[in-house]
Amino acid sequence: MPVSHEDLKMVDSAADLLGVASPSRKRAESEVSRYYDAQEPASSSSSPSNDLLDGVQSLSLSHIPDTDISPSNGSSETSSYRSGAVGTAASTGAAAVPPLQRRDSGRGRARELPRKSSLSMPTAPLTFQHHHRKNSSSGSISRIYTAAAAPNIRQPLSHEYLRGSGSPAQESTSVASETLQNSTPPFTSNEAARPGLNGRTRSLSRTRSLSYMKRMEPELPDFMVSAPAKVIMYGEHAVVHGKAAIAAALSLRSYLHVHHLPRDNRTVTLHLADIDLNHTWDIESLPWDFFNSPAKKRIHFDTVTSLDPELLEALQPFLSSIVNKYHSAATAFLYVYLCLGSKHSPAAVFTLRSTIPIGAGLGSSASITVCLSAALHLQSGMLVRPSAKLFEEECARQLKRINDWAFVGEMCIHGNPSGVDNTVATGGKAVLFRRGDYSKPPEVKRLEHFPELPLMLVNTNQPRRTAELVAAVHGLRNSHPTTCGLMLDAIDNVTAEAMMLLDNKHFRPDDSHLTRLGELVRINHGLLVSLGVSHPKLERVRQIVDGSGIGWTKLTGAGGGGCAFSVLKPIQMPGDEAKKLKVEETLKEEGMVTYEATLGGDGVGVLWPAMHGKPEERVSITKEMFLAADGDDGVEALVGVKALGSGRLAWGFWREWLPEEA
Ligand SMILES: Nc1ncnc2c1ncn2[C@@H]1O[C@H](COP(=O)(O)OP(=O)(O)OP(=O)(O)O)[C@@H](O)[C@H]1O
Ligand SMILES: C[C@@](O)(CCO)CC(=O)[O-]
To answer: 426 in the Ramachandran plot: left (φ > 0), alpha (ψ -120 to 50) or beta?
Structure first.
């Protein structure tokens, strides 16, 4: 392994990476280059000049064997679930190398890799599509890759200029320089000529104009990230107490636009448009010294399982002027921003809009913290844009990094979350999740055979706060430890039984399997009622659906209001469709909203740069356009994963799984 984990930690913690290479970073870069030179066959074809060397990593996946989950072994004490990709990657603790940029001299083209990890494929609208995971090559291997479509990170213009004559980048710099000089004459013209790098001669005025340009030019292009909502099918609340839960990504999503400001603007703005929160901080006045002090410093590779009260305290002066009932989202942003950044972090405006109802049990908070985590990692160069050339293992590693820090954000919003919401919002699809020991990574098993289920999702529009409901269950458990313990065990058994059905490739939603799943839904809801987390409006949904006989209903998420879903019976008799329409009508009359959403789609995605349109007529998506989009439909039409699709010029997803072969 050419670069040690320690080196990389140093590289990372010397976070003034933008434009200024630290000694450790330079060392790491040169080690990567040496390694790369040694690996690359001389016959490699030349690459586009903007190819970047994005990373090298030692890949090591520990495999935890499959274990059958049956009702008999389903209790938390005895059941043993197979750890899947996220959990597995988490357990390796292997170092990942920050993407290092390298101007290519003919070797940087992405090489043919033995196996693709993440193919472009249609996204969420493929309702409950079946997938399986390719067997990964076993053992611990070292590989190197390049990602041609990687974010063009940390490339100040001046670097382009100084690299030598004749490159397209230099041409464009010169043109831009002249344009700027014509429009804004910031320097005197009679400057003495002096030798430039590469033996060339440059005038001082040109040097100064470049430095002026450097200040005016944003450090990075604008980009977007997106993450889905989730539905917990079985096991909410119990999952906070170490039991298993089954959850799936939902096709409603949050979108975060990151607009970079000129370098001489040293501010960072968080604009949460849905909740009318718009706050700007002066970057250099933030408590960096405290967050970056040796005792407090946490880096991208760290798994943080609890918040540091002193760090939270240090943030208070910077949050106290934000008066907003949803202000915990700002705490989450600032905490992660300060942990992952430095006082040299790029100046930017983070604008968020979401199509997920807030505080409705659909994981709106996790969706936004996943977006924030992904954006901050991308900004600091700690992620490679997903591409078909990215190894499955590296995808898992990057997803783990996003997920770990989204969890930190979730802790800021929820207090004591299990992490199931951010895990689903990060990885997408459907998972079985269990976190027995909070000091360790959770066990996560991706459900490869998650079936297409006929679901109806209903929002009661009754607001509530997850943190309060989780605290209420803790309270009940403290006063009735034995009874509550048994109820939590019962929920765990329900989840284990459902797991056998949902992860079974022979599952067919049109036979007795569906009835069994439905009954488990109803039992789980009953247990949640006993735990005190239902609400009269949720009971009303259940009553209406039960009365019509069209399916089985359960609250989802924290309860106390928010959403319920019904697993619908197959439409078999002539009157069945009419009954369903009648139910929807009644719910609407009572002020509730039903959603047509699909489960099992993609997790976190990135649109880099933020552009839309056909390749020949692509235009930038500005934050103004994003803010002006009309409602959820407008947001979806402008930036939506469905509207723009996925692929190199559209949304990219870190996918750990491949479509099932025909
Ligand atoms: N669109 C949004 N814009 C800004 N902040 C948001 C947004 N959505 C969620 N949040 C943040 O998340 C908090 C709501 O989180 P909460 O856990 O109560 O609901 P949820 O995540 O939708 O539900 P559950 O955890 O049951 O799935 C809000 O207080 C706010 O801080
Ligand atoms: C209620 C809960 O189980 C689910 C919230 O979506 C809380 C958690 O898992 O953190």
So the answer is: alpha
